Hints:
Enzyme class (chains A, B): ligase
Pfam families (chains A, B): HGTP_anticodon (PF03129), tRNA-synt_His (PF13393)
Keywords (chains A, B): Aminoacyl-tRNA synthetase, ATP-binding, Cytoplasm, Ligase, Nucleotide-binding, Protein biosynthesis
Subcellular location (chains A, B): Cytoplasm
CATH class of the largest domain in chain A: Alpha Beta
Shape of chain A: globular
Oligomer: homodimer
EC number (chains A, B): 6.1.1.21
Amino acid sequence: xxxxxxxxxxxxxxxxxxxxxxxxxxxxxxxxxxxxxxPLETPAMENLSTLTGKYGEEGDQLLFKILNSGDFLKDVEDxxxxxxxxxSITFDISEKGLRYDxxxxxxxxxxxxxxxxxxxxxxxxxxxxxRADRPQKGRYREFYQCDADVVGTNSLLxxxxxxxxxxxxxxxxxxxxxAIKINHRGILSGIAxxxxxxxNETALFVAIDKLDKVGEDKVREELxxxxxxxxxxxLLFNILNVKGSIVNKMAFLATKFETSTEGQRGLRDLxxxxxxxxxxxxxxxxxxxxxxxxxxxxxxxxxxxEVKINxxxxxxxxxxxxxxxxxxxxxxxxxxxxxxxxxxxxxxYDAMEELGLFPKEAQVSSKVLVCHFxxxxxxxxxxxxxxxRDVGISSExxxxxxxxxxxxxxANKKMIPYTIVIGSDEVKSGLLPLxxxxxxxxxxxxxxxxxxxxx
Amino acid sequence: xxxxxxxxxxxxxxxxxxxxxxxxxxxxxxxxxxxxxxPLETPAMENLSTLTGKYGEEGDQLLFKILNSGDFLKDVEDxxxxxxxxxSITFDISEKGLRYDxxxxxxxxxxxxxxxxxxxxxxxxxxxxxRADRPQKGRYREFYQCDADVVGTNSLLxxxxxxxxxxxxxxxxxxxxxAIKINHRGILSGIAxxxxxxxNETALFVAIDKLDKVGEDKVREELxxxxxxxxxxxLLFNILNVKGSIVNKMAFLATKFETSTEGQRGLRDLxxxxxxxxxxxxxxxxxxxxxxxxxxxxxxxxxxxEVKINxxxxxxxxxxxxxxxxxxxxxxxxxxxxxxxxxxxxxxYDAMEELGLFPKEAQVSSKVLVCHFxxxxxxxxxxxxxxxRDVGISSExxxxxxxxxxxxxxANKKMIPYTIVIGSDEVKSGLLPLxxxxxxxxxxxxxxxxxxxxx
Lengths: 455, 455
């Protein structure tokens, strides 16, 4: 029989990884809740009619589709089968798919529950998503997203709170060297306008988005090929290369955007966000106004965010922005404005591992292992075990009659910090040898003293 | 455009349900960890070669299968397509499926990581599973399982600890009226032996398993049809109808099992489990020795468990048992004995809802909503908000400039217990009107006093 294996691009998370992942999740969840966001979970499977057409053609290809149950070929036209036309029969034999992100299921939820929801609706959602992407380092076919969104308000307070939440999560994770990049769709539109690239925005934004990866020359080349003149490109890089403080950049852009209402809208919004941060007494450390930040997704309409951890091989670990048309795609006529962002936990994990940032507490293990020389001492140990657990101390007893060495090995391998070895002496005296496994120290003390020491 | 919908048998969990579910999950997780179990997570998708053949033919039918990506028909034989043979092409166009339970992925994990695991390995796993079952009340196509297993030891301490964990979880959930039923495969085999039903065990156990649902007469009928004589059925019900304390039942069975080593093994194991519970100082309340408990799954080899909450429409909410062949199905030659059980969270949820057992704390909401009359007071409110969050109080500010009534309505709908309404007076004096939304009381106090009161 073949050895079992995992599907490509998927992973098991054993206890050591789980403990670290839970450390990240708990941190994020606590911050989300502290900011008034409420949890939502949606099913792994969605109707394909919900998913398709939302992520572009490439996204549709990357959806994992569920084969219909039963005699799924029954109603498929013969000709489709005879011509082996996989594409054309996909929707005949598959009605459901695995969710590709958390945004579309959230939009579906809002549309379906609009009348029960009190807006503004602040929800967070921490669940895996699936993409049939080619697996590579840092890219998996199953990975977790942690999203927080507010819909039903266009208040820029929400944008400011996103920045605050990111800062607080990173503080909790002890990640210090990072940048929250912020920009605004209006500013990008303004740039397109003033350099004479109106009508050609998509090509422009796609190219700009690559700037920090491929450099100015390549971006120039690409845009020249798309019909941008040398003059407009000079103006473009004159703007993109603006340096200095946030205030300086804004002042510079204001001079460029005299004729662009979109550009002015972008500047006004960003200024307001920074004002709110100030009123909140938040430092602007780690916050960067990045004029070249574009983000691929075309549905953003206002502020956009991206977070990078510095000095690691991983790219962005979080991103988001404001959208005005979340539910329109489901035929909703009322415009619901919203703003949200997403943490990529798998990438944060990899970055923290690379930087050695996981604290020692990011471990799950029992605090105490009760060991025993014989059956009598094991039975006596059960009472000790109960007393420890009764006060909330995670503890276990070695379940078999084996040599003490083997029991202590088990404690070491499982990183259990304390052991209590019980023999006939201990059963008689009630004094127990509590051993600190790391320091090797040992003291014979009473159960009460043990509890005090460990709590 | 069509209104979006959910796939049959799946559900969204909005904030109110999520809070209650998290209450259950947290409780279970805390108990598992207190008993030294460590977390594991496996991917939603497994290779079909891992899943098929593990759940019987019916189970195989209920697996959700993932359609291969790309040109999935390319290599399918023409004849299979021409004859529209759905069944025969299933494995040609689908290599992966969604996990059906947590036991098989756990077994796969153990086989794949055998050399890194320190045995006995105590793992817990809390994840959704998927079954293409016909949806009905209490039966969903996506639902959570919470499993805890110990493998690599045949110590009966583990069985006793399962009972202790169930008791502790139910105590935490305030579920008082329930029964942990325990039986042993050896006792069932012993019964088969002494009534002359050897070789016909499966039919016997399947029939017995229905006893409390369909009653004695129906079970008699069914077994008669399977060839059991009236005499052996009389003996069967003489045994199954044994009444009295655990000790009495055991004494009675011991007289019946004089010639059955299997029956004696069952009694010996159970006696040891009860002895351990006694050494642990655990009461035997809620524990029942149920001779007719059979549980369908044929892979159990020792103790079996089932938990029922009384006076609710839901059946069993937890079950498990000892198995000796967990990893054999993956070609593992070494026998790894293990014992485990599973909580059905969806059923526990339904039962607790039915019994009105969710405490008031099983809510997630902000503690405070900061409300404001105008922009100046909103900006002032941001400082208040920060101060509250800095000490860990979940709080939010209404993000838009709207009437106070609307802001207070929002607090009520979201069950936020406190509000602070800020106007120009408050900005000047720094004294803030903290309102207890439930009692309607209001007091003008300082920020420090507010923090003290709420913490």
